[in-house]
Amino acid sequence: MEKISINFQDRTSYTDFVWIPCGCTFDITGIDQHLPTNDSQSIIVFTELFQFSLFFLLIHLILSDKFWHWFSTKKHRQQQDRQTNEFPFLIEKKEVDSQEQEQEVHNPIDLSSSSPTTIDNVYCVNNQQQNNDCVLIDQVISSSSSLSPNSLLSFKSNENDPLISNNNHPLILQQQQQSHYRFDYLNNKNSEQQIDYCLYNNNDNNNQYKQSSNCLIDNNNNYYNKMVDMMHQGPYMMNNNTSPQMMGGPQPDGYMEQEEEWEREGLLDPAWEKQQRKTFTAWCNSHLSKAGTQIENIEEDFRNGLKLMLLLEVISGETLPKPDRGKMRFHKIANVNKALDFIASKGVKLVSIGAEEIVDGNTKMTLGLIWTIILRFAIQDISVEEMTAKEGLLLWCQRKTAPYRNVNVQNFHLSWKDGLAFCALIHRHRPDLIDYSKLSKDNPLENLNTAFDVAEKHLGIPRMLDAEEMVNMVKPDERAVMTYVSCYYHALKGAQKAETASNRICKVLRVNQDNERMMEEYERLASDLLDWIRRTTPWLENKTTDNKLSTAQKKLEEFRAYRRMHKPPRVEQKGKLETLFNTLQTKLRLSNRPAYMPSEGKTVRDINNAWKGLEHAEKGFEEWLLSEMMRLERLDHLAQKFKHKADTHEGWTQGKEAMLQSQDFRNCRLYEVKALKKKHEAFESDLSAHQDRVEQIAAIAQELYSLNYHDSASVNARCQRICDQWDRFGTLTQKRRQALEEAERVLEKIDQLHLEFAKRAAPFNNWLDGAREDLVDMFIVHTIEEIQGLIEAHEQFKRTLGEADQEYNSIIKLAQEIQSFATQYQIPGGVENPYTVLHPSEVTAKWNDVRQLVPKRDQTLQSELIRQQRNEGLRRKFAEKANGVGPWIERHIDAVAAIGMGMQGSLEDQLMKLRQYEEAVNMYKVHMEELEKIHQEVQENMIFENRYTQYTMETLRVGWEQLLTSIQRNINEVENQILTRDSKGITQEQLNEFRGSFNHFDKTRIGRLNPDEFKSCLISVGYNIRNDRQGENDFRRIISRVDPNNTGYVTFDAFLDFMTRESTDSDTAEQIIDSFRILASDKPYITAEDLRRELPPDQAEYCIQRMAPYKGPGTIPGALDYRSFSTALYGESDL
Questions:
Q1: How many Cα atoms sit within 13 Å of 145 on the Cβ side?
Q2: Which InterPro entries does the entry link to (predicted)?
Q3: 3-state DSSP call for residue 196?
Q4: Which one of 151, 372, 449, 570 has the largest count of C-beta atoms within 10 Å of its C-beta?
Q5: How far apart are CA 821 and CA 825, in angstroms?
Q6: Please, which pLDDT band fits residue 824 given cuts at 50, 70 and 90?
Q7: Distance CA 67, CA 57 (A)
């Protein structure tokens, strides 16, 4: 009979059947290696009649529990064998006797020798033979219960450092220097295979495995991972005291491994188990619903492994191996193992969780597995400020709920019992869903139900917790709450990230573009204004003239045109420039940008200094021009007066020098000599009378010279000729008198009658000359009192004409008597008066001339009186208008200043009042224009003083410009305060408090504080400034923020910005960087296509033109650096 042998040892599948032909015998061997010893048996020869019995026996074996336990163990061993091919960590076992075993145990193997040591013995403990071919090193070493202190298996290097020791910690690597160990072993087929292991020490004193030319280890610690995985699989699991960190491996995240050991016999708290079951079931269904399925019973529905694999595929987005569709137990175990293998491939260490427990429906193991999945796929990726997942999730909750009353999140159990924390999370992201102000801490059940209903309806978060259980439990289950809260995190955190990032970038870019436009406008206006000032100032500083009145009058007309047409637009431009600068600085402060520093020489201080220089030059030019007009007018009057007196004197001196030099007395008789003597005496009397005129001529010439008269040279020359002639007259007169006195002694007779005529006619003639000079004298007056004084003097002169008429009649009568005597006595020579050259007809002519000049003088004085009366009317008209405009301007300046103090109602009320005042000022401008016209007429009439008013046109202009500037500045300040209040969210009460404190220390009411006043103001509003060196340093930093231009004072806008900055938050460069990172899908660079896709066209092109190329690792063509661009927006680098 033929015999057939069946060897199960060489078979890999135990579900195949071997059919034995009828009449043959067969032998089964090798099955004892796969079944427990007490179940192994030899089956000898069967005939064809017993084939069906054998078939049923095999079925029985397949369905038995022991078979499946053996099957699962065999599968793990097969997996270990596959890993051993890559990472041999097994020692081949041979048959040796007990003596050899003990000898090998007690004699350490020295691996530091130059030749490799071949491990060709089996290492067994206490002579206990193993049923397996191979034994793990850690299995041998960790069997501490079977090792005595003297039977220690140890491996040593040449430094005698222990590598493996019997301390229940297998493979504790403590080598400090490079060591090279070589293990030789024989596999099942008796072929020798050699594997090298290398161990290196890094700088952190943590053992790291690295690859060398003869090592299997790579830089990613694959050796370590394979080794640890092998130790954690199957029945050869590491003991509880062993950890990967003891092997020198990296420290994993606390939530990548299980928080505690899932003991097979332990039980959960019933309340916690119920809550976890409900929460985990809801969490699983929230993901399984995406695949169109659900679970009802968490421990039952995962037993076949199908929905467990489906759940992993949904939450990971990856495809798992195809599941076994059979319903047998081994099919279920195989499916669960596929799920466990997938979880392990994600770096999760499944301690004490096996497929059998899941298939058997172990509640604790199933909940533990689901919790591990939740930790890995729902909570692990939560990261806040480099914290662990749990701490990060807790910190996220604390930050989001911090502003809400009655919410204090400290953990994931008691902090959530009243439901307010859930409601706060929803309200923080979706305030339209919950009215948080109506919630009460005393009604936790309603709060919880409200949060759960809203989350399920509007956020797509299933109801994972029960409100009544949360309220009734002393301490809710932390894992259940964490699972539910993580759903909130993912539902709320990921929503609208791209849109938020895009909006933030657009907002910042718009602000930046507006700021750039304002900076360019400021630079343009500043350059234009400064250029105009530079062109105008030299013209105003040019105070030279040719000393001609016509030239000065032309300059006056040019100055009036400058005041009327050229300067007012520049005043408006300067106010616009200051408003633009203040608005720009406010916007920069509110958007966290650095203060704008204009180009060199174009700061507000530079412009104000230039403007002050212009006004100073303007004031000096006007004062000089008016004084020059007065000087030139007086010079012209003096020149005319000099010419008139000089002409009169030269007319008087004509022929006098020849007469004084004459020797006519040599041939005269005595009486003729006497006559000549008397004539000379009369001449001397006349000469004395003319002395005053000569002194006046000299004084006028000296004054013209001192006043820098343009023709002073000719005046001085003429004056010098007159003075020289006058000196010669004195000498000649003295000589002639001496000659006549000498001749008198010879001549005794004299004509008494001619003598009397000469004596009386000469003074009268001199008076006539003086009167004629006074009547034709030119005069200049500026007031009505002065002209009235001249009229009074003229009237007094007219009252003396009666006496002069009598004197004239007496002199003429005397001449008539001489003529009558000469005619009566027929004395031809008696008519000629030897004592005087003055003829009666000459006296008559001068007298008639004087009488004709008197009415002309009356008319001239009356005309000047009328002109001065008209000027007086102009003074009164200007004064009346100025006395109305001046107080009006002062009242409005005070009113605007009062509004500027900020204590009259809300900012909107202040702005409305300022607008009303602005409108009133614009309407009142017509009065200023009328006043300018009157002032022009006053200047045209050469009116320089006005006693009827204290206001001058210059002071009114300054007041008017001050009023306009004050209104514009206060409007700008109020608008900036409104902008600050609205953007920073401060209340009107806070603003009033800040304004009140600021005004209290603004003693001078100029709208700014010096550093000491500012420090006192800060202390008054509760800002703590320490009284030590640190406090001084802090205050200097504060001053650098509120006064970036080092002006030496702090404005209210800067003070308000500092106070609001202390209590509010705003955009930062890091926020913009995070926003760009979202648009770039977490890449360190962004492309032009990304920007054009996410941003409006103009904003996208703005970014593309200004972003520098990205030069970091992993760059691509066209990559742009958004980090440097974002920091440049906030002044942290150059754009």
A1: 2
A2: Actinin_actin-bd_CS, CH_dom, CH_dom_sf, EF-hand-dom_pair, EF-hand_Ca_insen, EF_hand_dom, Spectrin/alpha-actinin, Spectrin_repeat
A3: strand
A4: 372
A5: 6
A6: low
A7: 13
* Alpha helices, DSSP H, located in 435-496: 444-458, 467-472, 478-493
3-state SS, residue 1033: helix
Rounded distance, CA 804 to CA 800, Å? 6
Residue 838 exposed, middle or buried by CB count within 10 Å (0-12, 13-18, 19+): buried
- Residue 710 has φ and ψ, to the nearest 5°, of -65, -25
Residues 336/359, Cβ–Cβ less than 8 Å = yes
- Rounded mean pLDDT, 412-434: 91
Neighbours of 427 (CB within 10 A): 23
Q: Are 486 and 393 in contact (CB under 8 A)?
A: yes
| Distance between CA atoms of residues 532 and 856, nearest Å | 54
8 Å CB contact between 531 and 606: no
The percentage of residues in the chain with a pLDDT greater than 70, rounded to a whole number, is 70
How far apart CA 315 and CA 412 sit, in angstroms, is 23
Token pair recorded at residue 977: 């305060």
| Band (714; pLDDT cuts 50, 70, 90) | confident
| Distance, CA of 833 to chain centre | 107
- Residue 1053 corresponds to which amino acid? D
Among 167-181, 468-482, 760-774, 1051-1065, whose mean pLDDT is lowest? 167-181
Q: Is the pLDDT of residue 874 over 80?
A: yes
| Contact (Cβ atoms closer than 8 angstroms) between residue 1123 and residue 1073 | yes
Mean pLDDT for the chain overall: 72
Q: Is 294 helix (H, G, I), strand (E, B) or coil?
A: coil
Burial class (CB in 10 A: 0-12, 13-18, 19+), 556: middle
- Residue 1025 has φ and ψ, to the nearest 5°, of -120, 115
Report angle CA 744, 749, 751 to the nearest 5 degrees. Answer: 115
* Triad 918, 579, 1061: Cα angle to 5°: 115
Decide if 632 contacts 547 (C-beta within 8 A).
yes
Are 1123 and 1133 contacting, i.e. CB atoms less than 8 angstroms apart? no
Which 8-state DSSP code applies to residue 488?
H
Q: Tell me: the pLDDT tens digits for 212-242? A: 333 333 333 333 333 333 333 333 333 333 3
* Model confidence pLDDT, tens digit, residues 930-956: 888 988 888 888 877 888 888 888 898
CB 625 within 8 A of CB 545: no
Burial 901-919 (b: 16+ CB within 10 A, else e): bbeeeebeebbebbeebbe
Cβ atoms of 151 and 166 within 8 Å: the answer is: no
C-alpha span between 306 and 295 (Å, rounded)? 11
Q: Which helix (H) or strand (E) holds 4?
A: strand 3-7
Highest-confidence segment of 16-30, 175-189, 231-245, 437-451: 437-451
Looking at 219-223, 826-830, 903-907, 967-971, which range is the least confident one? 219-223
How many whole angstroms separate alpha carbon 467 and alpha carbon 420? 12
Q: In angstroms, how far is CA 691 from the centroid of its own chain?
A: 85
Q: Is 428 exposed, middle or buried (0-12, 13-18, 19+ CB in 10 A)?
A: middle
- Residue 1014 makes CB contacts below 8 A (sequence gap 6+) with 1001, 1039, 1042, 1050, 1055
User: H or E segment at 162?
Assistant: strand 162-164
Minimum mean pLDDT range among 205-214, 1088-1097, 1119-1128: 205-214
Cβ distance 1046 to 605 under 8 Å?
Answer: no
Read off the pLDDT of each residue in 31-50 and give the average, rounded to a whole number. Answer: 38
The dihedral over CA atoms of 99, 105, 110, 114, expressed in degrees to the nearest 10, equals 40
Q: Let me know: does 508 contact 592? Beta carbons within 8 Å.
A: no
What are the contacts of 440-446 at 24+ separation with CB within 8 A?
A: 441/406, 444/417, 444/418, 444/419, 444/420, 444/470, 444/471, 445/419, 445/471, 446/419
- CA dist 413 and 240 (Å) reads 29
Query: Six-digit token pair at 404?
Result: 């809400």
Any idea how long the chain is?
Answer: 1135
- Nearest to 257, CA basis, from 389, 347, 374: 347
